[in-house]
Q: What sequence folds into this?
């Protein structure tokens, strides 16, 4: 990646490149990359989806205090972030 942002591709350019790759892979039946992905899908084992028959109906105890603490911390982080953004925007507006 180039240090100078103006030499890097834009998001639109990246999307165009990926779209072209996907189109080319889809159009070629004999594409090596496509074949490797398809072969890998055959080899990969299915995840274990076994669920105990009574597990679905069993109640579980959750410690809601931990959830409350996590939510409070998350709200605090968001509020601090919003405050910082507001300060930056206001300082830019004053400087104009």
A:
């Amino acid at each position: 990646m180039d240090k100078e942002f103006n030499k890097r591709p834009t998001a639109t350019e990246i999307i165009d490149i990926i779209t072209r790759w996907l189109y080319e892979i889809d159009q070629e039946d004999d594409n090596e990359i496509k074949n490797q992905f398809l072969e890998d899908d055959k080899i990969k084992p299915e995840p274990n989806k076994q669920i105990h028959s009574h597990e679905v109906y069993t109640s579980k105890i959750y410690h809601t205090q931990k959830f409350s603490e996590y939510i409070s911390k998350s709200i605090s982080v968001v509020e601090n972030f919003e405050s910082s953004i507001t300060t930056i925007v206001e300082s830019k507006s004053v400087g104009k």
Summary: The mean pLDDT is 79. Residues 67-96 form one domain.
